[in-house]
């Protein structure tokens, strides 16, 4: 019955397109949005018609295991399906645009339960559970203010570009390509080299990690349910075939609570559409794109236009790393702020500040409700998320990729990948080089001082302060010795 329904949908689509051509509508893509709404009953129908990956009987045993688990846990499916409602239509539209199998639109079900705030023990995060190094290599922006891996639009675009690459690399063998997305193309290439038949890649015979071997059956089991939910007595939530949000660019820095108020939605709904922000405020000097529920588009644009005429209400919040010799008064003057505002924003009891400490500097306006704003909300920033830590190295005279790799105990190839550099590229003084510093269990807790180290540099590398290192190591000053072991966490 499901097959007959799909054939009818495809037939209707073909007839309507013929009609459009017959009345000289040459740009059918212009009509694509309303055409899809006319042809498909809902987003689930669009997904079903785009399925391309064949069900393989060799996966049947494991697939059946997960199918039974899903059927026994309808509350889990209900939660994940509801999580997907704000995002799935957009992801399906992008999968179609990239001309990928629609099974790929289901990967966030497996990766993150469609929770953009989810993160793994090794530091992957977002709907697509990208590792930070992979994300940097594919052009996703990650900084103190923002994490593009959790941004719905940016992460989806880069994940699908990556899937396109994997599909081409593995000659449209989508089982293998999806496995490579899960475990990394290096592991899959190695498994392919070990297999007996070198002429045809057979996913089910590849020696891959257990997690990856079960990844595809999980996906295929979910596919079976979506393909024919009535057969398994599963009810899919209503998901109309229409856009859920629009993208709006904001030129000035705004608090997230203010943006939500301009859209006349609560902050929880705003965060649901905009999980990429790591602070309660947008970047101080870069335009920001926000997702707004489509039914609030006009309200938001009108309210934003009215706010733009009231420049005195535009807040400014900067991040500043205290340098040796800085005083609170000098920093306040530099940012047209005041010592009182800085102390309020950072909950400082007095004017004492320490080198390498990050301060938030409000300027130009009086900050209200400071307790709600900062210094840091871990519910938003997740600064304590596990996994590699971001270090930004500023290029000095004489630096090379090799010398930087040696300094941070990493590989030249990784630095080139993270920063989209080529072997012949020359570094320029003050260039910022992204380093993802992987910390093992021992090195997360202790560090052995090397030649050339300073307490300040060690503190920066471990995302702490010199003052904290002094306290936990019972140090009176900042002098350290080669081979000295320091507690760093």
Characteristic terms for this protein:
44% helix; two-stranded antiparallel ribbon; disordered N terminus; mainly alpha; 489 residues; two-stranded antiparallel sheet
Plain-language structure description:
With 489 residues, the chain is mainly alpha-helical. The protein contains 23 helices and eight strands. The chain has helices spanning 2-22, 32-39, 43-49, 60-72, 74-84, 88-97, 107-112, 132-137, 152-169, 174-183, 185-194, 210-227, 256-263, 267-273, 297-308, 328-334, 339-346, 378-381, 401-407, 412-418, 441-445, 455-461, 466-472, and strands at residues 245-250, 288-293, 316-321, 358-363, 389-394, 432-437, 446-448, 485-487. Helix 4 (60-72) packs across helix 12, helix 10 (174-183) packs across helix 11 and helix 10 crosses helix 12. Residues 1-34 and 366-381 have low confidence and may be disordered.
Neighbour order of strands in the largest sheet: 1-2
What percent of residues adopt helix (DSSP H or I)? 40-55%
Biggest beta sheet attributes: 2 strands, antiparallel
Q: Which range does the strand content fall in? A: 5-15%
Mean pLDDT: 81
| Measured distance between first and last alpha carbons | 60 Å
- How many individual β-strands? 8
Overall geometry: globular
> Could you name the ranges where pLDDT drops below 50 across 5 or more consecutive residues?
1-34, 366-381
> What Rg is obtained from the alpha carbons, in whole angstroms?
26 Å
Note the quaternary state here. single chain
How many helices does DSSP assign?
Answer: 23
Summing up helix and strand content along with how strands pair, one would put the structural category as: mainly alpha
